Protein backbone atom coordinates (compact mmCIF):
# COMPACT_ATOMS: atom_id res chain seq x y z
CA UNK A 1 0.00 0.00 0.00
CA UNK A 2 1.38 3.37 -0.99
CA UNK A 3 1.82 5.93 1.75
CA UNK A 4 -0.56 8.91 1.43
CA UNK A 5 2.27 11.43 1.26
CA UNK A 6 4.14 9.48 -1.42
CA UNK A 7 0.87 9.20 -3.36
CA UNK A 8 0.45 12.97 -3.06
CA UNK A 9 4.01 13.60 -4.29
CA UNK A 10 3.51 11.18 -7.20
CA UNK A 11 0.04 12.36 -8.21
CA UNK A 12 0.08 16.05 -7.33
CA UNK A 13 3.53 17.50 -6.63
CA UNK A 14 5.53 15.97 -9.46
CA UNK A 15 2.83 16.59 -12.10
CA UNK A 16 2.51 20.22 -10.94
CA UNK A 17 6.28 20.65 -11.29
CA UNK A 18 6.36 18.99 -14.70
CA UNK A 19 3.56 21.33 -15.83
CA UNK A 20 5.90 24.26 -15.18
CA UNK A 21 8.74 22.70 -17.17
CA UNK A 22 9.08 22.16 -20.92
CA UNK A 23 6.87 19.28 -22.05
CA UNK A 24 9.81 17.15 -23.16
CA UNK A 25 10.82 16.81 -19.50
CA UNK A 26 7.64 14.97 -18.55
CA UNK A 27 8.03 11.23 -18.96
CA UNK A 28 7.51 8.06 -17.00
CA UNK A 29 11.28 7.68 -16.46
CA UNK A 30 11.46 11.26 -15.15
CA UNK A 31 8.61 10.65 -12.70
CA UNK A 32 10.16 7.36 -11.58
CA UNK A 33 13.59 8.91 -11.04
CA UNK A 34 12.09 11.81 -9.06
CA UNK A 35 10.26 9.36 -6.83
CA UNK A 36 13.23 7.02 -6.45
CA UNK A 37 15.60 9.86 -5.57
CA UNK A 38 13.11 11.36 -3.13
CA UNK A 39 12.73 7.97 -1.47
CA UNK A 40 16.51 7.53 -1.40
CA UNK A 41 17.33 11.01 -0.13
CA UNK A 42 14.61 11.78 2.42
CA UNK A 43 12.05 9.00 2.25
CA UNK A 44 9.67 11.96 1.99
CA UNK A 45 10.08 12.26 5.76
CA UNK A 46 12.61 15.07 6.24
CA UNK A 47 12.51 18.49 4.63
CA UNK A 48 15.83 19.40 6.23
CA UNK A 49 18.63 16.83 6.28
CA UNK A 50 18.84 14.98 9.57
CA UNK A 51 20.31 15.39 12.07
CA UNK A 52 21.83 18.78 11.21
CA UNK A 53 22.84 18.46 7.59
CA UNK A 54 22.90 21.20 5.02
CA UNK A 55 20.40 19.74 2.52
CA UNK A 56 16.84 21.02 2.00
CA UNK A 57 13.62 19.67 0.54
CA UNK A 58 12.41 16.17 -0.26
CA UNK A 59 15.24 15.82 -2.80
CA UNK A 60 17.86 17.13 -0.32
CA UNK A 61 19.56 19.93 -2.22
CA UNK A 62 22.52 21.78 -0.77
CA UNK A 63 22.75 25.54 -1.27
CA UNK A 64 26.08 25.55 -3.09
CA UNK A 65 25.48 22.17 -4.69
CA UNK A 66 22.27 21.37 -6.53
CA UNK A 67 20.55 24.72 -5.94
CA UNK A 68 23.45 26.79 -7.27
CA UNK A 69 24.10 24.21 -9.97
CA UNK A 70 20.59 24.43 -11.42
CA UNK A 71 20.50 28.23 -11.14
CA UNK A 72 23.85 28.58 -12.92
CA UNK A 73 23.87 25.74 -15.47
CA UNK A 74 23.48 27.02 -19.05
CA UNK A 75 20.78 24.41 -19.82
CA UNK A 76 18.70 24.97 -16.71
CA UNK A 77 19.15 28.63 -15.73
CA UNK A 78 16.87 29.89 -18.54
CA UNK A 79 14.19 27.43 -17.41
CA UNK A 80 14.30 27.85 -13.62
CA UNK A 81 14.47 31.66 -13.64
CA UNK A 82 10.96 32.20 -15.07
CA UNK A 83 9.61 29.48 -12.77
CA UNK A 84 11.03 31.35 -9.78
CA UNK A 85 9.47 34.54 -11.12
CA UNK A 86 6.11 32.81 -11.54
CA UNK A 87 6.23 31.44 -8.00
CA UNK A 88 7.40 34.85 -6.69
CA UNK A 89 10.85 33.84 -5.50
CA UNK A 90 14.05 35.62 -6.46
CA UNK A 91 16.14 33.31 -8.66
CA UNK A 92 19.01 33.40 -6.18
CA UNK A 93 20.76 30.60 -4.38
CA UNK A 94 19.81 31.89 -0.94
CA UNK A 95 16.12 32.44 -1.77
CA UNK A 96 15.65 29.13 -3.58
CA UNK A 97 17.54 27.16 -0.93
CA UNK A 98 15.16 28.55 1.69
CA UNK A 99 12.06 28.07 -0.50
CA UNK A 100 12.57 24.40 -1.31
CA UNK A 101 12.17 23.46 2.34
CA UNK A 102 8.41 24.02 2.02
CA UNK A 103 7.69 24.52 -1.67
CA UNK A 104 7.66 20.94 -2.92
CA UNK A 105 6.73 21.92 -6.47
CA UNK A 106 9.75 24.20 -6.74
CA UNK A 107 11.92 21.49 -5.17
CA UNK A 108 10.65 18.98 -7.75
CA UNK A 109 11.46 21.47 -10.53
CA UNK A 110 15.01 21.72 -9.21
CA UNK A 111 15.29 17.93 -9.02
CA UNK A 112 14.00 17.41 -12.56
CA UNK A 113 16.29 20.11 -13.89
CA UNK A 114 19.30 18.57 -12.18
CA UNK A 115 18.46 15.29 -13.92
CA UNK A 116 18.19 17.24 -17.19
CA UNK A 117 21.85 18.21 -16.93
CA UNK A 118 22.89 14.58 -17.31
CA UNK A 119 23.41 13.74 -21.01
CA UNK A 120 22.18 10.16 -20.64
CA UNK A 121 18.62 9.06 -21.30
CA UNK A 122 16.78 8.39 -18.07
CA UNK A 123 16.57 4.73 -17.08
CA UNK A 124 13.72 2.40 -17.91
CA UNK A 125 12.10 0.22 -15.27
CA UNK A 126 14.63 -2.58 -15.80
CA UNK A 127 17.65 -0.25 -15.57
CA UNK A 128 18.16 0.20 -11.83
CA UNK A 129 21.97 0.26 -12.17
CA UNK A 130 21.74 3.07 -14.73
CA UNK A 131 19.45 4.98 -12.38
CA UNK A 132 21.98 4.54 -9.59
CA UNK A 133 24.75 5.83 -11.85
CA UNK A 134 22.77 8.94 -12.81
CA UNK A 135 21.77 9.55 -9.20
CA UNK A 136 25.40 9.31 -8.05
CA UNK A 137 26.64 11.60 -10.81
CA UNK A 138 24.07 14.32 -10.23
CA UNK A 139 23.37 14.22 -6.48
CA UNK A 140 26.88 13.24 -5.41
CA UNK A 141 25.71 11.91 -2.04
CA UNK A 142 28.26 12.04 0.75
CA UNK A 143 27.22 8.66 2.12
CA UNK A 144 25.53 6.74 -0.69
CA UNK A 145 23.43 3.74 0.34
CA UNK A 146 23.54 1.36 -2.61
CA UNK A 147 21.69 -1.30 -0.62
CA UNK A 148 18.44 0.71 -0.59
CA UNK A 149 18.47 2.01 -4.18
CA UNK A 150 17.06 -1.04 -5.99
CA UNK A 151 14.05 -1.17 -3.66
CA UNK A 152 13.36 2.55 -4.03
CA UNK A 153 13.79 2.40 -7.80
CA UNK A 154 11.42 -0.58 -8.09
CA UNK A 155 8.86 1.08 -5.80
CA UNK A 156 9.00 4.27 -7.84
CA UNK A 157 8.31 2.36 -11.05
CA UNK A 158 5.43 0.46 -9.39
CA UNK A 159 3.88 3.80 -8.44
CA UNK A 160 4.45 5.33 -11.89
CA UNK A 161 2.93 2.22 -13.51
CA UNK A 162 -0.09 2.39 -11.19
CA UNK A 163 0.60 -0.93 -9.53
Summarize this entry quickly.
With 163 residues, the chain is mainly alpha-helical.
Notes on the protein architecture:
The chain has 163 residues and is mainly α. It has helices at residues 4-20, 28-41, 63-72, 77-86, 93-99, 104-116, 128-139, 146-160. It is globular, with a radius of gyration of 14 Å. The N and C termini lie close together (10 Å). The model has no long low-confidence stretch (mean pLDDT 95).
Task: List key phrases describing it.
163 residues; mainly alpha
Oligomer state of the chains in this structure: single chain
DSSP strand tally: 0
Principal-axes geometry comes out as globular
- How many distinct folded domains? 1
As a whole number of angstroms, the C-alpha radius of gyration is 14 Å
Query: Which class best fits the helix and strand makeup?
Result: mainly alpha
Question: Per DSSP, what share of the residues sits in E-state strands of 2 or more residues?
Answer: under 5%
Any chance you could write out the topology, listing elements then pairs?
Elements lengths: L3 H17 L7 H14 L21 H10 L4 H10 L6 H7 L4 H13 L11 H12 L6 H15 L3
Amino acid sequence: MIDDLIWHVAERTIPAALDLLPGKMASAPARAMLLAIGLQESGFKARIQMPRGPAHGWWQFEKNGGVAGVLEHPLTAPIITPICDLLVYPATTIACYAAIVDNDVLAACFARLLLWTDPRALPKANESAKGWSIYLAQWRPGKPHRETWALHFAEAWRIVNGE
